[in-house]
Structure formats: structure tokens, C-alpha cells
Write a structure and sequence with these properties.
The chain is mainly α. Helix content is 74%, strand content 0%.
């Protein structure tokens, strides 16, 4: 069977994101008691909007399983909010380890050296830097952890999509460093190494994406 293309993986991920967002909004508004009803209604509504045929029972089951998995992950994160707690994984990619460790280190240094005021909002450049870099780690983990690199060809397109999302957060963090520099929020001897690391992370992510695209182009493992 022909492996999924990058475009197909992007469309599938966008579909799943829209479904998850709509279900989350309705759960907050209507409560979890009507979860099954909400899930079925939102799947049908999204298919109508996209001009797709009604979902099969198999697809409904896959969607329900995916949503439940996301809910479990969210509950575990809330129950154990410490990002430094190690989780058992079959394989942890070195890039995930480096990004996560440095993001946590930057956060600790920011607290120790007072890079932001107590009432700084979410859009404060330091918060944007710290938040985006911290989110990038789990995003990369979703793409890279759990199986040895590179993945089998049938997983390449989906992995590319996840890597592109992680790269977006790294880019957000890098853009935030420009504001931090312009507003003199972080000393140059601290900010300089952060910029170098972020640029390196983005370069490595691009190399991984290019490797997977080449594998898809070849069409073989």
C-alpha cells in the first residue's frame, strides 16, 4: 500500500485538531456526561462541512479512541505537572532530551535572575521565549520518541507534520529573543547562547524533516 503523503497527513491532522477543539468547547459548556453524544454530533458536523461521506463505525471508533487517549494524557499531565519527571519510553531521541533540558534550565535561570516581573502577562517576551521553548520539547517527543530513528515509511508523513509543529514553537521562541534583546530584558551573555541553541535546534529539525521527505520520495525503507 502506498504510504501517506505529507499533504494527506497535514489534512488528517487538521481534521483531528478541529474535531478536538470543538469537542473541548462543548465539553466545557455542556459537561462530560454527554461525551458520547457530543463526539458523534461533532464528527458528523465536521464531515458535512468538509463534504465527506458520513463516518463509518470504524472511523467513529478510531476517533473516539484518539480523543480518549488525548484526554488520558491531559489528565496525567494535570495529576503530575512536573515536566522533569521521567517517563518510561522505548526510545528517547537526543534532540528531545536537549530541547527539554535546556528549556527547563532557561526557566530556572529566569526565575533566579528575575528576567520577568511578577505580573508579566503571557505575551511578555520572556514568557513567550520560555513557554514556546518548553512546549517544543513535548511536540518533538510526539514525533521522535517511542521508536528508533528513522521511522518506518508508513509513519514518515505523520512524523513530518509533528516535526513541523515543533519547529513552529522553536521559531516562536527565537522570535521572542529578538524582543528580549531589543527591550534589554535578558543580559547579552545569557541571551546569546540561547539564540545559538535555538538556531541549532531548528537546523536539526529541518535536517530530520529533509531526511523523511527523501525517504518518502524514494518510496522505500
Amino acid at each position: 500500500m502506498k504510504p501517506q503523503s505529507e499533504e494527506e497527513a497535514e489534512a488528517e491532522q487538521a481534521h483531528s485538531d478541529r474535531l478536538a477543539d470543538r469537542i473541548e468547547v462543548r465539553l466545557q459548556r455542556e459537561g462530560a456526561d454527554d461525551y458520547d453524544k457530543i463526539l458523534e454530533e461533532e464528527i458528523e458536523r465536521l464531515h458535512r462541512e468538509e463534504g465527506l461521506p458520513g463516518p463509518t463505525l470504524e472511523r467513529q471508533a478510531r476517533s473516539a479512541e484518539w480523543i480518549e487517549e488525548m484526554n488520558r494524557a491531559g489528565e496525567e499531565a494535570l495529576a503530575n505537572p512536573d515536566p522533569e519527571v521521567e517517563q518510561e519510553l522505548e526510545y528517547e531521541h537526543p534532540l528531545v532530551t536537549r530541547v527539554t533540558e535546556l528549556a527547563l534550565q532557561w526557566r530556572r535561570t529566569a526565575e533566579a535572575e528575575g528576567w520577568r516581573t511578577e505580573h508579566a502577562g503571557q505575551e511578555h517576551p520572556v514568557n513567550e521565549l520560555l513557554d514556546a521553548s518548553l512546549i517544543a520539547g513535548p511536540k518533538l517527543a510526539g514525533a521522535l520518541n517511542g521508536r528508533y530513528w528513522p521511522p518506518e515509511i508508513e509513519f514518515c508523513a505523520h512524523t513530518i507534520v509533528r516535526l513541523k509543529r515543533a519547529r513552529g514553537f522553536l521559531e516562536d521562541a527565537l522570535r521572542a529573543t529578538e524582543s528580549c534583546h531589543g527591550e534589554k530584558l535578558i543580559k547579552a551573555d545569557r541571551l546569546g547562547p540561547i539564540v545559538v541553541e535555538l538556531v541549532d535546534f531548528i537546523r536539526e529539525t529541518d535536517e530530520l524533516i529533509a531526511e523523511l521527505r527523501a525517504k518518502l520520495e524514494r518510496g522505500t525503507d
